[in-house]
Amino acid sequence: MIRRVVISQLMIMVVLTSLLLSGCASTSSKNEYVGYLFAYFTGNGPGEEQVRYALSTDGFNYFALNSNDPVIDSRIISARGGVRDPHILRGEDGMFYMVLTDLYVPEMGWENTAMIMLKSKDLINWTHSIIDIPKTYSENFGDVRRVWAPQTNYDTSTGKYMLYWSMLQPGTPDIIYYAYANSDFTGLEGEPKQLLYKDGACIDGDIVLKDGKYHLFFKNEDEGAKGIMLATSDKINEGYEVQEGYVDQTDDAVEGSGTFKLINSDKYILMYDVYTSGKYQFCETDDLKNFKVIDENISMNFHPRHGSIIPITQEEMNRLLSKWGKVIGLVEGTSNDQVKSQNIEIRESLITLPVMPGTDVSSFDPQLNLFSEVKVSPIGPQDFSKGAVKYSFQFGEQTRTVDVVVREQANPVLNGYYADPEIIYSEREQKYYLYPTSDGFNWWSGKHFEVFESADMVKWTNKGKILDLTTDVEWADRNAWAPCAIEKKVGDSYKYYYYFSAAQKIGVAVADNPWGPFVDTGKPLIDFRPEGVKGGQEIDPDVFYDKQTGKYYLYWGNGYMAGVELNDDMVSINKSTLKVMTPDQTFREGTEVFFRNGKYYFLWSEDDTRSPNYKVRYATADSPLGTLNIPQWNVVIEKDPLKAIYGTGHNSVVYSKAKDQWYIVYHRFNRPKGIKMGDAAGYNREVCIDELNFDDNGYIKRTQPTVKGTINSLPAISKAEEVASVN
To answer: What is the rounded distance in angstroms from the CA atom of residue 83 to the CA atom of residue 73?
Structure first.
């Protein structure tokens, strides 16, 4: 049954660009708060350092306006072309005030000199001023190298708006300063003064007034520091005393805290940017001292960075929806677990819901979750086997009809974000096992590995976590990347060896079952750079059994390809056999080796995993450490823009005896959103499987990446559906 909810974990929003205020009548008082506006930016890459908006009616579940595109053009308001850390304040005079960091990281790195002050009466149209600190206050601040994360509060004792932000000068740590805005909010009244006195560096201040006391949350920037701390004072502009301990509730690095009070409640939300993990964490408190994580109650259809939240009225919400509510944001997910929610495709007149192979689409209930006050028809199970079903969505007096298609799709084969897939076929279990990198963490900061099991390479079962760097590995606690595994018969039993990247070294763990538990050997196997190699990283292992000689080999390298024979114990190497085998300038990483019809095949990935052009190439050799022969046409798989498939790389290969068919297992950008995610596409990847074929001479035929995957029985995908929405 299609349900109507305020906003669900997987949100669906219907808002029409022609929405009239009369169509959203409310019985609420004009000044009563009914929802929340979240202002944020999304990352450090081109196009990401811009202000974006999201709405919520409950403070926990948010959907992006304007399809998560910017609502203010940074090129207009910024001196450098990028803005960060948006902080919005509702003024005492009915105006809205926003302050921003003026910084474009792709060109400037992490040094800047200016901040931006904006003013608006409607949250849509803003006037702006740029305050360059060294130019404005050259005598005492002419050497400032960083001006970060400004915020604004109203000082009731002076009747003025107080800005506060952090600055860095040579020879000093980052210090939080303050100054008062002039009467028209276009500049500062006077020279900045130090606000917080603390040994060491501090940034990202956020002031909240509660029970007559000012609470200043800030990030401790000292080397080795953990995260968000609190200082309190009876005055807004002086006397802050730093409290003991940290208020954030995670061991991961955090920054950019923001605090807001829930409407009609005594509870506050402290939120902060867990920037190394690619997520936001929300904590609930009623005293601003004790905090409880409530992540299970939070949902967003976007990935925010350092932002702020204010309550808004029904009139303000209607105005924002009228300006930036788009039909293209209609569906973000459903409550039906057969739908691959991260791959839903949305266009103005067509919504495609990809479902697991084997789903009965002749009687399928999409179980759409809708934004409040939206009515939809039809409801309940529908027959999608004959094509699209027309759905009518009504919001107020506005109606829009959209075709909804339910389509079986095998790719991606795993639910969620995973990358660098390694696949093996277990002779003991007569099943396939897939060992990927756990993805979805900013800058590849994952710390654990999982394994998946399948009898047919179509339906996969998550067998759980098999190795956690934080608890199972003593010599590394970061960057759990690109594993590989192999099954070895030892007498009448089997052993399983798992080689993995951690902290730019390669370790090995051993288990009695392909699903673990795996036990680390206690030290890295590869923690050195081969002689003559001047750059690159010791990552991306691949293990290979040569049936011709009965020997096992390990390959690895980023920037170079190295190979070595493993000793019989499988946890040490015969260093005398080590050979640098880098094929040519296209080699980046991700070596994969297999044997077929007398030839050894060496595959590798070219370019950067964040690039849409990430692809796989290959060479052949006559022995596991032999000279590589590179065919003239040696691309194995690459992007297909017509299908909105990008970033196809870092693969493994497996042979199916039952089907007499080879398969390539690889990762790609999320489809269809990845191409718009910037660098984040490179750590929000998904795993796919397609056929790998050869010509009569043994050359690899180029694989066309597909949405359909390896299931021949699935119906053909129409051209209209094949091209995903990327606009």
So the answer is: 9
Domain spans in the chain, listed from the N-terminal domain onward = 1-19+328-407, 20-324, 418-722
Overall average pLDDT of the 101-122 stretch: 96
Average pLDDT over residues 170-180: 96
Sorting pLDDT into bands at 50, 70 and 90, what band is 326? Answer: low
Q: Residue 368 corresponds to which tokens in the numbers above?
A: 């759409």
Give the span between the Cα atoms of 459 and 475, in whole angstroms.
35
Question: Where does the pLDDT of residue 14 fall: very low under 50, low under 70, confident under 90, or very high at 90 and above?
Answer: very low
Q: How far apart are CA 620 and CA 617, in angstroms?
A: 11
Place of tokens 């890459």: 45
Q: State residue 644's pLDDT score.
A: 92
**Residues contacting 483, CB < 8 A, separation 6+:** 420, 422, 435, 436, 437, 449, 498, 499, 500, 501, 541
Phi-psi region of 93 (alpha: psi -120 to 50; beta: other; left: phi over 0): alpha
- Give the DSSP H or E segment for 322: helix 314-324
pLDDT of the residue at 401: 87
Q: Over the stretch 651-683, which tens digit does the pLDDT of each residue have?
A: 999 999 989 999 999 999 999 989 988 888 999
Contact 224, 21 (CB under 8 A): no
For residue 248, how many other CB atoms are within 10 A of its CB?
Answer: 23
Measured between alpha carbons, how far is 571 from 80 in angstroms, rounded to an integer? 52
Q: What is the pLDDT of residues 620-638, one digit of tens each?
A: 999 999 999 999 999 999 9
CA distances from 722 to 419, 692, 705, 719 (A): 23, 21, 12, 5
Q: Which of 401, 87, 360 is nearest to 217 (CA)?
A: 87
Cβ-count burial of 493 within 10 angstroms (0-12 exposed, 13-18 middle, 19+ buried)? exposed
Query: Which of 705, 701, 699 is CA-nearest to residue 665?
Result: 705
Q: Is the pLDDT of residue 3 over 50?
A: no
What is the C-alpha separation between 375 and 373, in angstroms, rounded? 6
d(CA 50, CA 18): 25
Class of domain 1-19+328-407: mainly beta
Question: How far is it, in rounded angstroms, from Cα 33 to Cα 528?
Answer: 60
CATH fold label, 20-324: Tachylectin-2; Chain A (2.115.10)
Amino acid at 636: V
Tell me the torsion sign for CA atoms 178, 269, 443, 642: negative
What is the CATH superfamily name and number for domain 418-722? Glycosyl hydrolase domain; family 43 (2.115.10.20)
Spatial separation of the C-alpha atoms in residues 414 and 125, rounded to whole Å: 43
pLDDT band at 711 (very low <50, low <70, confident <90, very high): confident
Write the CB contacts of 238 (distance below 8 Å, at least 6 apart in sequence): 195
CA triple 423-426-428, angle to 5 deg: 170
Structure tokens at 83: 């803005």
Rounded Cα–Cα distance for residues 13 and 370 (Å): 6
Residues 6+ apart with CB under 8 A from 618: 601, 602, 603, 604, 631, 634, 636, 700
Judge whether residue 9 has pLDDT over 60.
no
Q: Please, is 264 exposed, middle or buried when counting C-beta atoms within 10 Å of its C-beta (0-12, 13-18, 19+)?
A: exposed
Question: Distance (Å, rounded) from C-alpha 628 to C-alpha 624?
Answer: 10
Same fold, 20-324 and 418-722: yes
More confident residue, 445 or 724: 445
**More confident: 337 or 723:** 337
Residue 53 has φ and ψ, to the nearest 5°, of -125, 150
Structure token pair of residue 406: 């339910």
